[in-house]
Predict the structure.
Amino acid sequence: MLNLEDAVNLARRAVNEKGADYVYPDSERRPTIAGGKQPVCRYMVDGKPSCIVGHIMVYIDHPVPEVREGCGATTVAADYFEPGAIEFLTDLQEFQDRGKPWGFALDMALDRN
């Protein structure tokens, strides 16, 4: 199982790859789930990682299958990450889904954890 430090290092890798100012594009979001307030990210688009957690899952060789789209980070990471790491990934995804740059999302998730 991967721990919080592993999750943070993987998140930093994604931020370094895409850039701290990268904002997840609306074009890759899927429609709002019933009762949701905003469109949400997709882990994979056209077989490639899309959102920040999607990138992290690819880095550990466990891309999220399409059938798992719509599941939160808690669900998709549960078999691979320890609880503290999952909390961090959930926070990271939350800030990304609010339209924040990935560098900011990382900083805020770190502040919470």
Residues 4-18 form the longest helix (15 residues).
